[in-house]
Amino acid sequence: MRTTRSPQALAEHSALVTGGSRGLGLLIADRLAARGCAVTLAARDTSELDDARDKLRRRHPGASLHTATCDVRDQEQVRAVLSTAHERSGGPDIVVANAGIIQVAPLDSIGADEFRSAMDTMFLGALHTALESLPYLRESTHGGRLALISSVGGLMGVPHLLPYACAKAATGVLAEGLHAETAADGVTVTAVYPGLMRTGSHLHAQFGGDRGKEYGWFSALAGAPLVSMNAQRAAERIADAVVRRRTRLVLTPAARAADLAHGVAPALTTRLNGLMARLLPEGTGTRESLREGKDITPPQGAVTGRAQALGSAMNERAADAYNQRST
After folding, report:
1. pLDDT-based confidence at 216, cuts 50/70/90?
2. In this structure, are strands 206-207 and 291-292 parallel, antiparallel, or unpaired?
């Protein structure tokens, strides 16, 4: 992670970031700490959390940094984490619900269980985080701020990412509805719709169908400079949007274009998605357990393999920088 200057705009504030042990969550925590905020990182893996805290301590000596092992699918765990964070650092004044999973597979290789898993982690995880944090945010002397991380995938039905898109769409609607309902309490809610970012997330994404080919196209696009966004810049913009109490943030030109196209011509956008689906790997017609990217050997020798190697080079470097290889 490169050091960038950020104004100390959040001195005496405290924050909680779910999904904070790696990738975008870690980078958002970094940007909040850079602004003088006391930060609690929450995630399921204790070892990853320890590694993440150590990275941030090296970058921000003297910063108040804590970790909390938490599965956001369990509302009781979320409640306990918020109570502990409040006792340690006060607040929290800022909460970022970022925890998520990515499942990449054609429809004929998944079933209801995959949709349920995506909804449990991303939508219910965001809901639990929002419901349990709002009492603290309402009491914040700085004015509470809540951010829910959706995705460009939540703005339309993206082929081979349907469970992810459904969960992210629900998360976006939740954020925008909460913004309206909590405005009178002095709490602001920011709905964040990132596009593809170079975070190294392909290593922990889950793949089904023709796993090698699915991994190939996803990792190539997620690392392509003209399609994906530098994750540090994305995190800085998200932190800035939260500080400025923005209602909605759509990141990357591709995501903004998709948002506009779907709003102006939804039927045409859906047909174009259908054409895109035909370019993606064909399904195998069988259901097998999904496998994480770090356990998949990408295709070699073919055009897909060369494109994957070229497009994922930057994403591989991001994986090292953003704690994606800690386990």
Report:
1. confident
2. antiparallel
